[in-house]
């Protein structure tokens, strides 16, 4: 794996170098929607498995710039640490599964991470929607202390997508620093998509009254397709009834819910006249877990392994 750069490190470098190379007024910098999937397998998308319903993702992929050799660490925590910091996770002691519910591990506070750079040096407003998984034991480790202007989501590695209960049945859902119990019972993918739409509406309203409104960087960090496998039944009934394997059928429904959310978000961006100044980045933090119904075919291996099924991910940019 040595000659293959981490895709996440490359993307961070690309963002920053492009923005710095051509300084222009803040309103002319592209808005960035960074879609980060969780445990999405190589085959968990419509353009590789015709039984999966992902027309929005398929369309952006077909028209976008594809990173066909895009690699990550094989676990969620190290991958996200690399993405945010641009540093190999083992240089920060974050390899393996260091960032977990029983650990105080986090990206070292002395390291500048992506949202801080975009906010402080390049004049972006920055928002995290969804999964964080980069430290929570100290207030200083949490998203709004690490460069994000707002946070709507959860701290740990996974949770029940309806109850939002995490390890040891602890409730884990926040708006900025505050525990948000008003969303209990609502499906995570829907909540994250709708929060992103809200941010787009707020940006458009601000732009109408203030031409110097800062461009936005929204990291839309879906918890799908991470276990536990759950999705509202209508996604399965409408799009996945022909998938025979039970776990894979639910994964199909989970991806259909993500795709619907991205369609609604991009429809809003089009309606608000914001697509021309938008860069969409789509990737996953690692490969899929075939024991939970994901597919990495024809790649060998699984999440948590160094075979390509664990570390090679679907990545593209669309504008």
UniProtKB/TrEMBL annotation:
Q: Which GO terms describe its molecular function?
A: metal ion binding; sulfuric ester hydrolase activity
Q: Which Pfam families match?
A: Sulfatase
Signal sequence, start to end = 1-21
Cofactor(s), by name: Ca(2+)
**Would the keyword Hydrolase turn up in this protein's UniProt record?**
yes
Q: Supply the alphabetized keyword list.
A: Calcium, Glycoprotein, Hydrolase, Metal-binding, Signal
Superkingdom of the organism of origin: Eukaryota
Which residues are in the Sulfatase N-terminal domain? 30-319
Protein's UniProt keywords contain Signal: yes
InterPro entries in UniProt = Alkaline_phosphatase_core_sf, ARSB, Sulfatase_CS, Sulfatase_N
Family per similarity comment: Belongs to the sulfatase family.
Q: Which PANTHER family match?
A: ARYLSULFATASE, ARYLSULFATASE B
How is this protein named in the record? Sulfatase N-terminal domain-containing protein
The opening ranks of the lineage are: Eukaryota, Metazoa, Spiralia, Lophotrochozoa, Mollusca
